[in-house]
Amino acid sequence: MGVAIRTAGEGDRELVVRLLDEAFQDDPVSGWVFPGAADRRAKHPGLMAAFTDIVLAGGRIDLTEDGAACALWLSMPADDHDGDGDAEDDGPAQVRQAVDPDNERIETIGRLTGAIHPAGRAHEYLWMIAVAPGRQREGLGTALIESVLDRCDREGLPAYLEASSDRSRKLYERLGFELAGPLLDLPEDGPTMWPMWREPRTRKA
Question: Residue 38: enclosing H or E segment and its boundaries?
Answer without folding.
Answer: helix 37-58
